[in-house]
Amino acid sequence: MKKVLLTGFCCYCLMILCQTVSFAQTQFKLLATKKTSTMQKELNEAADAGYRFEDVTGGKTTFGGSEVVVIMSKPTEGDSKGRYQYKLLATSKTSTMQKEMQEAGDNGFEFRGQTVLDTFIGGDEVVVILEKDTKAEIKKYEYKLLSTSKTSTMQKELSQAGDAGFKFVGSTVGKTAFGGSEVVVITRRNIQSKINL
Predict the structure, then answer these.
(1) Apex CA 192: angle with CA 160 and CA 98, to 5°?
(2) What is the mean pLDDT of the segment spanning 27-45?
(3) What is the pTM of this model?
(4) 7, 45, 54, 168: least buried by Cβ within 10 Å?
């Protein structure tokens, strides 16, 4: 009798435990557009709804043609609505991208992803997505964009950047208006690192 009662009690406790424990799940959102200006708006609308950037890629899709495609996610538990802000940069000029990334870095935006895309207006462009956590302490970065069609030149430039305290954050290989088929590498260093050198 004691075994039956103990087994029944254990089953009851297990049933109560299963009802109170919820399993964390994730919701995903896929954004796809031909216009990079539209993508920045959609990124920030999704962020306002609690989603966070996961990955970006650019290329030709069956129905959309050449598009930038972004995956975002949010946990079903917790609330991160409005926590993240996004900036999307798209340009075919190295100097313009360097300047725009630095301006974003000075305002607390951090590199999250990059791709090369044949955009609707600008032709072949490098597309970079940056993120700002509005609830975290702002970290300021100095960005350095390296682009070359020669891997030996890239090796030299990467070594120089590493010696100066820059860390690798992303790369793409593709045909760009920067100079044809190129390796485009983005590096960054904390502003404190710059001061200490």
Answers:
(1) 55
(2) 90
(3) 0.76
(4) 7
- What is the domain count for the chain? 1
H/E stretch holding 60 = strand 52-61
Q: Note down the domain range covering 159.
A: 27-75+82-192
147 within domain boundaries = yes
Helical residues (DSSP H) of 21-116, grouped into ranges = 36-48, 94-106
Helices (H), 28-177: 36-48, 94-106, 151-163
176 is a domain residue: yes
What is the rounded CA–CA span in Å between residue 32 and residue 89?
16
Residue 43 and residue 70: Cα distance in Å, rounded? 8
CB atoms within 10 A of CB 83: 15
Q: Is the pLDDT of residue 5 over 50?
A: no
Q: What is the mean pLDDT of residues 65-90?
A: 86
**9 in a domain, yes or no?**
no
In a domain, 1, yes or no: no
Q: How many CB atoms lie within 10 A of CB 181?
A: 11
CA–CA separation, 117 and 17 (whole Å):
50
